[in-house]
Urea ABC transporter ATP-binding protein UrtD (Caldimonas mangrovi), 297 residues
Amino acid sequence: MTPDLMEAGARLRAAHDARPPAKATESGDRGASYSRVVQPGEVDVTHGAILYLDDITVSFDGFRALNRLSLSISAGELRCIIGPNGAGKTTMMDVITGKTRPDEGKAYFGSTIDLLRLRESQIAQIGIGRKFQKPTVYEQLTVFENLELALKADRRVRASMFFRLTGEQLDRIGEVLTLIHLKDSAQRTAGNLSHGQKQWLEIGMLLMQDPKLLLLDEPVAGMTDEETERTAELFLSLEGSHSLVVVEHDMKFIGELTQGGRNGKRVTVLHEGSVLSEGTLADVQANDKVVEVYLGR
């Protein structure tokens, strides 16, 4: 969940507690100017890539978490990232979302937006959503209220107190509820959902922000087999309309993602902070170095 959304939740909760009870209702050179106002949806993908990392290096106390990492994600692509613990997967997402500043390298969203010039909250606003491994939802609110909170809207306290959903917003929440398999649980308190359902809800909250790029960190960890299968269906349904980067250790899940939807999906293997191998799942599984450092025999 993005920092601005977490802050907004606290403000909305305060506004909710303060109001009286109501009746129950339902560019070509990649030059980016820091002063440029980037509106959501203004992502230039005329060159094909929605995310471009070039020679990204990050060091912590002499340890290179990322070592000249270069990566390109196409618009509408579903890319799977695998690799052993310590390979740099989380640090890579930290750089993309502005949580960590690299020592060297370039990071662009589309052709013109220099991510290294933006703050974490600004990056979330321009269309990059991140889901962490542990689901972060507002457990005392209902599923519906969680999605309502995640809407792009004026979140100041006064605006929140008098906010009313439009028909279009209600329709959008309904679409997302169906997409994340929680339509029948709209009025359930989020704290009563299963682990897998909470994961779906957080993904739904990201979708309410209409992100162009979704970063998903081990999204099926702790899920049942049925939940894992339905999550694969969800991600495949988003492919094309969104770009997805899925970091995961579950190779069965990776197989479901790469075999469904569009053909020719690529899998990237990270090791010691850089790309060890990249290609189809069959390609990386046949790579001796990948087998040695990650997959095993």
Q: What stands out?
A: The two ends are 37 Å apart (CA to CA). The chain has eleven helices and ten strands. The chain has a mean pLDDT of 85.
